[in-house]
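Researcher: Structure prediction, please.
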Amino acid sequence: MTTTTVTAVALTAVIGYVGAEVAEESLLERLLWPQRFNHDMTFYNVVQRSLLLTSGGPLHHAALKTLDTLRAKGMYAGPCRGHMLGTGFYFNHEIMHFQRCSQARMLIPEKSRNAFWIRVLHDVNADQHISFKIPRKDVESNRLSDIYRSLQPVYHLKLGLIPNSNEPSPDVICVQEDTTSVAVISNVFFSELVSVIASMVAGLKLGDLLFFFYMLVPLFLKVLLVVFAVSRGGLMSQQELQKVAEKENTDMSNAEAFEVADPIHKFMVLEGPQPVVVQFFRHYGHPIRDRNSLWVGDRFREIVCMTIICCLFLYFPIGLIISQWSDEKAQYLWLGYQMYAITAMHVLRFLGWQDLGRTEKRIARLLSNGKTVWLKTEAGCAVSASLSLHRVNKSADGKAKVQEIIDVCKDRLAGGEESREESRPQESIESQIQRPPENSMEGLNG
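Model: Predicted structure follows.
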């Protein structure tokens, strides 16, 4: 082994150590949920994906942490054993919310679990709607100037139920994330464009078939993850929503307010029918685990996904071993690819682009542009979403604005209940006039 070879191998080992530290578990999360992370296909998104999302770098540290979490959650025990929440399959954001219109629950914090709409609000570009510039003080005026401590937006997201018979208008954008579309397959291939180019160089220019097939492994594993992705729960049907409404003693026609206790983004209010909103705090997107099939059952899908994570854990060490018995040009190709992959992971982490292509980011972009979004799944009722934003100068103003939104919702809810109460006595009087009691009729006949 030449001095150059030894230097290249040593440098690759050092790069692997540095790269393993920068790799995050979110890189594995996007692989385990390909439908959520690959439906968005804009030109800018495709360019970013092609340059930054190759999975051939040193992911062994992130993969090992993901496997540790799966083991700790009991996922190795068997079918329907353990807990998916809090793993790479179904991330837990540990954000609480309050049902402010429910007298019994208004002070009880409840878990938001995967928190789909909260993630959407995190990615909303509030600067497109409101200005966060501090106005200049008028020195000549004697009026006391306002105090600007922390300029923040107040998010007011309105959710509604869309009947299956309704057709979207031209200004409504429909978003669906539960299918394996052409966009999903295309984005998977685009994400491994760099590794495919490296494999072509290894096979066609260097004539190294071992490295040719080795460089294609990340693409092959991603395709397998799309094919064997776990099935997930979609939106609830009208009948399921009605059952929840009866159980929770609420009305599907009433919009209730939910305040989100987010320590960073702080001021968020979700408004909509209670069953429609709470489905996103409970089981929307949760993996389905109890279905068996002669071809591919749910447990088989889980095992395949966990096995692929093990393959990603071993990918870099195996490549390091292979490079020791390759010629000098192949070693430099391997070293150059690893340096590129590590640089890409640093860019993703420094710029906060780990959620690139995520469904929540796509919906946030549409809401930021003033669009109304319909979230749809193959089964279940579609949910509409529209956003209002308000600027506040300090935390006290933000709390006051949130309370104002909640009070308006409570007043509207109380007004609807009063109108129903007023209509009930009138209906009973009319029924008594039209249908006299049987005992009175018997008395008259007697």
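Model: The CA atoms of residues 96 and 261 lie 5 Å apart.
Researcher: Thanks, that helps.
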